[in-house]
Amino acid sequence: MGQKKMIPVVIDTNVVVSALLFGGGPAKLIELWKEKRIKPLISEEISTEYLRVLAYPKFRLSEEEINFIIYQEILPYFKVVKCVFGPPIIKEDPDDDKFLRCAEAGNAKAIISGDIHLLSLESYRSIPILTPTQFFEIFAKNQIV
């Protein structure tokens, strides 16, 4: 029997931060990427945003803690992809375009987000945009190919 293929996904910043810092439902994603069942995709722009958000004073993370998260919990498991830039896709929040472009460049099977601008699209170039709960439901049924 062949080994199951890892499913490429893009995970929005709010979901990654929630999973890594607060646990709960989104934390199941950490298990999935560590078990090599999903392959999160990341671009330079997304990486920069993850780092910027983790450094917010409200999280009270030390530089060592941030480095641990980036170098031990994210980078060993995420695949870096190079994105192509273009005109704005989400006019209300063009900063969210980086997740769509990363998903397209990396042939993602899903974008996992809690962001209203992304979720309101429902999909981008046939890539579904799902909440963590929606993703887990579909993933459990093996409906993401």
Explain the layout of strands and helices:
Blueprint: E1 7-11, H1 13-22, H2 28-34, E2 38-42, H3 44-54, H4 63-74, E3 79-80, H5 97-105, E4 110-112, H6 116-119, E5 123-124, E6 127-130, H7 132-140
Parallel strand pairs: 1-2, 1-4, 2-3, 4-6
Antiparallel strand pairs: 5-6
The profile of the biggest β sheet is: 6 strands, mixed
- Our estimate of the beta-strand percent is 5-15%
Structural class: alpha/beta
User: What's the number of extended β-strand segments?
Assistant: 6
Distance between the termini: 17 Å
- In helices, the fraction of residues equals 40-55%
CATH architectural designation: 3-Layer(aba) Sandwich
Low-confidence stretches: none
Shape: globular
- Total helices: the number is 7
Q: What top-tier CATH class fits best? A: Alpha Beta
Could you tell me the radius of gyration in angstroms? 15 Å
* Strand arrangement across the biggest beta sheet: 3-2-1-4-6-5
Order of helices and strands: EHHEHHEHEHEEH
How many domains is the backbone divided into? 1
Average pLDDT taken over every residue: 93
- Under CATH, the homologous superfamily reads 5'-nuclease
Query: What do we call the CATH topology?
Result: Rossmann fold
